[in-house]
Amino acid sequence: MRVTYQFLFAGIIFLFSQLSIAQTTFGPDSSQPPIRFVGDKDYPPIEWLEEGKPRGIFASFLEEYSKALNRKVEYNLMNWKQAQQAVLEGRADVLTVFSPNPDRIKDYAFVDSFLHFEISLFLRSDNLTIHGLADLKGIKTGVSKGGFPRKIIETQSQAKLVTMNDHLDGFQKLLKGEIDALATTKWVGSYIIQKHKLKGIKFAPTPIATKATHMGVRKSNTELVQQLQQGIELMEAEGTLDRLNQQWSGYNMVYLTEEKLNQIYYQFGFGTVLVLACLAVASIITLKRQVRERTQSLSTAKASLEETVDRLTRTQKQLVQTEKMAALNSIVSGVAHEINTPLGMAITLSSTLKEQITQLEKLVSQDSLTKKALLDFLNESQDSLELEADALRRAVTLLRNFKQISVHQSQEHRQLINIAEVIEDSTVIATNDIEEDKINVSVNGDSTLTMDTYPAPLAQALVHLINNAVIHGSNQAEPVDVSISYAKSDQNIILKVADNGCGIPSKYLTQVFDPFFTTSLGQGNSGLGLSIVYSIVNHVLGGSIRVNSSFDTGTTFILELPIKAPEIQDEIEA
Fold this sequence. Notes:
By secondary structure, this protein is α+β, with helices and mostly antiparallel strands. Helices cover 48% and strands 20% of the residues. It has helices spanning 2-17, 57-69, 80-88, 148-156, 167-176, 186-195, 222-237, 240-249, 258-295, 298-365, 371-403, 419-431, 455-473, 529-540; strands spanning 25-26, 35-40, 42-43, 47-50, 53-55, 73-78, 94-95, 108-124, 140-143, 160-163, 181-185, 201-203, 209-218, 415-418, 439-444, 450-453, 480-489, 492-499, 544-549, 555-562. The strands form four sheets. Strands 1, 2, 6, 7, 8, 9, 10, 11, 12 and 13 form a ten-stranded mixed beta sheet that branches. A five-stranded mixed beta sheet has the order 15-17-18-20-19. The radius of gyration is 32 Å and the shape is extended.
C-alpha cells in the first residue's frame, strides 16, 4: 500500500513538472534585443530553480507570452533581492511576480500579469471551529514577515499574529500547537505540505482573499511597459490566458495521508451501501406518495398552485426593488465622486482669494500698498477666478449630463422623420467642435426611409456615439473614420455606428453602458456618455443597443429601433 502512495506522489510531481520547460530562452529571433525576465529562485510552485533550470507555472506562461510579444525573451532565476537590483541597474528588464506597494512605485512601473493567488487559512485536521477571518479573533495565526496575507490578517481580523521564519517553520508550529492557523497562498502552502510529507493539515475551503499579480519594470522604461501590456491584452483577447488558467487549475497540489486514504476507502464502501439502501427506501416512498397524490382533491392542488404563484409574484417585486436600489446607490455614489473634484477646487480657490483680499486690506490700512503688490493681486485674482469658473462649469456640465440619463419624457413628442436628415443634423452637431483632420464621417443608407419616433433623443444618442469614437477610439496619430449605416429589417431600423479606432478590451465590454464607468477617470471624462445612449435607446426610442469590438480593430455600436416608437409613459409601474 505504501508503494501505491509513493507512485501517487510521483505522479503528481510528474504532472506538475509538465508545466515547466528546461529552456531559458523563448520566442522568435528578431532584430530587437531579447527581453530579460528575472524571478525568485525559491518560490515554488510559481517558479523555482532545479538543476540550474527554471521550473514552475511562470515558465510555461513565458512560452506563450513570447509569441504574443513577437520577441525573444530570456528567463533567469536568482536571489529575489538580487533580481530587483538587476532590474533597477538595467542588467535585467522585467521582474516576474512583483506587486505594487508605496515603496516600490517610486522606482518601478507595473504591468498586469496573468496569475490570481488564492489566500487560504491552513489548519490542523481536527480543527472544527475556524472557517474564515471572522473566527480568528484572539487566535494565534502564523504569517510571513511581509506580504499580502499579513496585510489581510492585520486589517480584516483580530487575530494574534505570529511571524514565521518560512513556510515549513510555520507548518511545524501549527502541528505543535504553537499556532492555531496559518495564512498563505494556497498554491505555495499545499506545495510545502506535499514536498515535506506533512500530515494532519487541512485548509479552509473558502479563500480569505484573492490577489492579482503584476510584473515590475524600471519606471523610466515606458516603452517596454506599453509592449508588455499589449501582449497581455492580446493573449486575453485571443483566449490564451483563459486556456492556460484552465490548464493550470487542473494541477492543484494535493496531499493525502495513509490514514486519510483509508478513511476514504471506508467512507466509499459505507456510502455505497447507504446509497443503495436509500434508493430502495426512496423507491418505496415514491410509490406510496404517487398513490396518495392520485387521491388528492383538485381543490387542494389549486390552492397550492395559487400560493406558489403569489409567492413568486412577491419575490419578483422584491427583486425589482432590490435592483432599483442598487442602481440608485451606484448613480448617487458616482455623482458625488465626480462633482467633488470641481467643487472642491472652487472652494479652495475662493478661500485663497479671501485670504489675498484680507492681506490687501491690511496693506491698505497700513499705507504700505505698492503698485507691484496691487498688480500681483489683480493678476492672481484673475487667474483664480478663471480657474474657479472652469471648475464650476465642469460641475454644471456633469449635472446636465447626469440629468440626460432620464430624458424628460413629457416634453418630447413622437413625429414622422426622415432618417437621413436626422443623421446629417447629428453629424453637424457632433463635428462642430472637432478639428477637420481628427474625424472623417461617412453615411450609407436609403435617403427616403422614415420613422415615427422621437427625433431629439435619437439625435442626442448619435452625437454621443460620434463623440465617443473621437474621444476613446482615436490613437492621436491618425484621424478616426466613423461610418454610419442604416437599413430596414421587418418592422425595425438597424442603425450601425462604426469606427476604426483602438477598440475596447474584451474585459470592459460588459461595463461600457454602466453609469460612471470610464477607463480615464480624472482626465475630464465622467463615464455618462454611453449610459445616456443606453437610456435613450431602451427607455425612449423603445429599441436595443449592443456593442462589438476587439483590440486595435475598432468598435461598432448596433442600434435596433422600431419604425414606430412606443408612446412614452409618464410613470412606469414598479
